[in-house]
Design brief:
single chain, 176 residues, alpha+beta, Peptide Deformylase, five-stranded antiparallel β-sheet, two-stranded antiparallel ribbon, 7 strands, 26% helix, globular
Length: 176
């Protein structure tokens, strides 16, 4: 059983800017543990606190070496360009090609309050940018061009209303 329900597109909490974390304490560690459980059950590779209805600037992820969390993250540098099919746990079953920087440098704090600095590229860089968008109240559909966004919103509306069927291509990966 997951620690939280993942908030879905249309939930106003996903459009709000998350607040900075002021105390790194046992309650925050429990939140991170519950978020990781929720992320793995979804299944996903990353999950931001607003996606579970908590307005705190933190997210969790796992792209291989094991679960990690970052508190009050900031992207301090980015470079390049990378197009990749991107999905979202808050927009389940759908994905779109989205252009983002290929490399990012992110800083923040770990759960012990220590400064962390991570340079990432490709998939991990994309994950960081995607989760940072959630902390700023931005959903991936806002990264689409106007025509694609219009089609995406219609598809989402139809799915929410139970209109139509599955996408002919079987939907997309929902990873972030």
């Amino acid at each position: 059983m997951a620690g939280y329900d993942i908030r879905l597109i249309g939930d106003p909490v996903l459009r709000q800017t998350a607040r900075e974390v002021t105390d790194i304490d046992g309650a925050l560690v429990r939140l991170v543990d519950d978020m990781l459980e929720t992320m793995y059950e979804a299944p996903g590779m990353g999950l931001a606190a607003p996606q579970v209805g908590v307005q705190k600037r933190l997210f969790v992820w796992d792209v291989g070496p094991g679960p990690e969390a970052i508190v009050n993250p900031e992207i301090v540098e980015s470079d390049g360009e990378w197009v990749f099919e991107e999905g979202c746990l808050s927009v389940p079953g759908l994905s779109w090609e989205i252009v983002r920087p290929k490399m990012v440098h992110i800083v923040g704090r770990d759960l012990d309050g220590n400064e962390v600095s991570v340079e990432a590229d490709e998939l991990e860089a994309r994950l960081f940018q995607h989760e940072m968008d959630h902390l700023d109240g931005t959903l991936l559909i806002e990264r689409l061009d106007a025509d694609t966004r219009k089609i995406a919103l219609k598809t989402i509306r139809d799915l929410q209303l139970g209109v139509g069927g599955p996408r002919p291509d079987g939907g997309g990966l929902t990873l972030l």
